[in-house]
Write a structure and sequence with these properties.
With 306 residues, the chain is an alpha/beta fold. It is 47% helix and 19% strand. It has helices spanning 10-21, 33-42, 81-92, 107-114, 154-169, 180-201, 212-231, 240-250, 257-263, 274-283, 289-303; strands at residues 2-6, 25-29, 44-48, 51-55, 58-60, 71-74, 97-100, 120-125, 128-133, 136-141, 145-149, 174-176. Helix 3 (81-92) crosses helix 4, helix 6 (180-201) packs parallel to helix 9 (257-263) and helix 10 (274-283) crosses helix 11.
Length: 306
């Protein structure tokens, strides 16, 4: 299969590498010139459990060089989804599928403004990756990838099932689900309970559990979001708070992606995580003061980066 990955950061490079190692024709597209140059010159370096391998893979800063792809995977920051969607529309042509495994909410909706929604897939992945530098990543964790059709039509569901089978056969364990919106909301609740708190306090994921006051802050943010989901008739897991704590413990030594963004003075995805809850609350005539505060603090921090 010919596959284009739009956004070749840590996760984009990781998925591109796994797909290329399985024998697919894979292209990485990114605007980071130095990263692309090093990949093309020296290959992509992938560290895993102390071992490093180098993979030869095509990378480019010019999407015109790629041509048409059967599958386009979006891994850009959510703030860049609209521009990535325009690129994906050209790469996918009239038949290709476009899949988002990004953090946050609203990405699939944006993609559907540019591409037939029946060709849009959305999902989450438990694989973890860290960008070590230009041309170098760390595969930090392995887990299941779950996808579903955004249009939730039978044609869309069949596309998701076929792609899930394809991924699993080449070693990327993947499950197809019918209710992808609930899936994304459950992932959103994890990010709501961990990301902004760790970004603001410089702590690692597991340290959220060290103090009851921090656990309570996480719990309050998640429970606010669960109420919003209920008003929107979105089914989320009843044990969402305990699940957030379990994820924090399982990834105890990790710094959240939002924490890494703040560390490197990059724009975060707060608008599609806690900020998304704030917007939905306002739309429904509800209040979300904890998520409002976390959003305001992150946005203030971003504004005053030196």
């Amino acid at each position: 299969m010919k596959i284009a990955v739009v956004g070749a950061g840590a996760m984009g490079s990781l998925f591109g590498a796994m797909l290329a190692e399985a024998g697919n024709e894979v292209w990485l597209y990114d605007v980071w010139v130095e990263h692309v140059k090093i990949i093309n010159k020296d290959g992509l370096r992938i560290e895993r459990e102390g071992q490093t391998r180098t993979l030869s893979i095509e990378a480019t800063t010019d999407p015109e060089q790629i041509g048409q792809a059967e599958l386009v995977i979006i891994f850009v920051k959510s703030t860049h989804t609209a521009s990535a969607a325009e690129t994906a529309r050209k790469l996918a042509g009239s038949d290709g599928a476009v899949m988002t495994l990004q953090n946050g909410m609203g990405n699939a909706d944006i993609l559907s403004e540019f591409i037939d929604p029946e060709r849009v897939l959305a999902g989450t992945t438990s694989h973890g990756a860290t960008l070590l530098g230009p041309g170098s990543i760390r595969h930090a964790g392995i887990g299941t990838t779950t996808i579903g059709a955004w249009a939730e039509t039978e044609q869309g569901r069949e596309r998701a099932r076929k792609l899930s089978d394809f991924f699993t056969k080449i070693g990327i364990e993947t499950e197809a689900v019918d209710d992808v919106r609930s899936l994304l909301w459950n992932k959103l609740l994890i990010n709501i309970g961990i990301n902004a708190i760790t970004a603001l306090t410089t702590i690692k994921n597991g340290q959220i559990l060290d103090l009851e006051i921090t656990r309570e802050l996480s719990r309050n943010a998640v429970e606010e979001a669960m109420k919003i989901a209920g008003q929107m008739n979105i089914k989320v897991r009843e044990d969402a708070v305990d699940h957030v704590y379990a994820v924090a413990e399982a990834t105890a030594l990790n710094r959240s992606s939002m924490g890494q963004d703040v560390d490197n003075k990059r724009q975060t995805e707060i608008g599609t995580i806690n900020g998304f809850i704030v917007r939905q609350a306002k739309r429904l005539g509800m209040q979300a003061p904890v998520n409002q505060t976390l959003t305001a603090l992150i946005q203030t921090l971003e504004y005053h980066y030196q």
